[in-house]
Structure formats: C-alpha cells, structure tokens
Write a structure and sequence with these properties.
Helices cover 50% and strands 22% of the residues. The chain is of the alpha+beta class. It folds into two domains: 2-78; 94-152, no CATH class. The protein has a six-stranded mixed β-sheet with strand order 3-4-2-1-6-5. Strand 1 and strand 2 (101-105) form a beta hairpin.
C-alpha cells in the first residue's frame, strides 16, 4: 500500500510543480511586459507610442489571466490530501481502470511513473465527470467505450 501512496504523492508533487511553473512563467511575462512598456519612449510618432503601450497592456492582461488560472489550480490542489484513500472517485483519487490510470486533481497531462502512464485530470473534465462518484467495480461508458474501475486509492 505504501508503494501506491508514494505514486499518489509523486503525482501530487507533479501537480505542484506544474502549477508553480505556470505561476512563475506568468509572473515573469507580466514583469517583462511591464518593463517593455516602461522602456517605450514617446517619439514624434505619438500614435506608434500609444499603440505600443496598448499592445503591452493587452500582453500584461493575457498573462494576468494565466496567473489567475494558476492561482485557481493552486486552490484546487490545496483541497487534496495526497496520502488519503478513497472509496469513490473524487478529488485526490487515483483511479485504476480497464482503460487507463487517472489521478483526479487538475488538468496537467500525462506522466510516467515506474513504467506506468497516469493521466492527471480535473474532476470537471469529461472523463472526470464520467468517473465521478463511482466505486471499485463500477462501470461507465465514455466515448463509446465501457470503462471498469479496477481500484480506487
């Protein structure tokens, strides 16, 4: 059982790293856009200056949105206790199915641990919704395929 928990802890750590990178990249991009806007000097072509500043403002807003998304993901992750076990599929569950292995947390893609693929998905994702609240032995049909839950950890 501890080996399984360590996989959950590794998946959780991957999520933390994913969010940290997302937030760091957004903060860096905001700072760079602000610096570029500050360095933009007013020239005789006033319209060019205003256009440049507007572009930098749009860039900052885009990165601020990405930063907010990262902070929201951080809040979702804060609700998970990585070493807890589950009877039903929910936030923080490691779900072993007949099709694939899923870690229900945030949408962070596929990761390989000990030669096994794990899909880190959000509970709000279509597959997350299909699996939600099912227990071991439960079945669901997703995109025409029957998925059987072998285990939930």
């Amino acid at each position: 059982m501890t080996g399984t928990l360590s996989i959950k802890q590794q998946l959780f750590a991957h999520c933390e790293q994913y969010i940290h990178q997302k937030i760091t990249n957004a903060q860096k991009a905001i700072a760079e856009a602000q610096q570029a806007a500050n360095e933009e000097t007013k020239s005789s072509a006033g319209d060019k200056y205003e256009t440049g500043r507007a572009m930098m403002q749009l860039e900052k807003e885009k990165h601020a949105t990405q930063l907010n998304e990262g902070l929201k993901l951080q809040k979702v992750l804060a609700q998970i206790t990585p070493n807890s076990t589950h009877q039903e599929v929910g936030l923080g569950s490691l779900v072993v199915t007949s099709q694939a292995n899923y870690y229900i947390a945030i949408s962070a893609g596929k990761v390989m641990i000990d030669q096994q693929n794990y899909f880190i998905i959000s509970l709000a994702s279509p597959i997350g919704q299909a699996l939600k609240d099912l227990s071991k032995g439960g079945q669901t049909v997703f995109r025409g395929q029957t998925i059987t839950i072998k285990n939930i950890l």
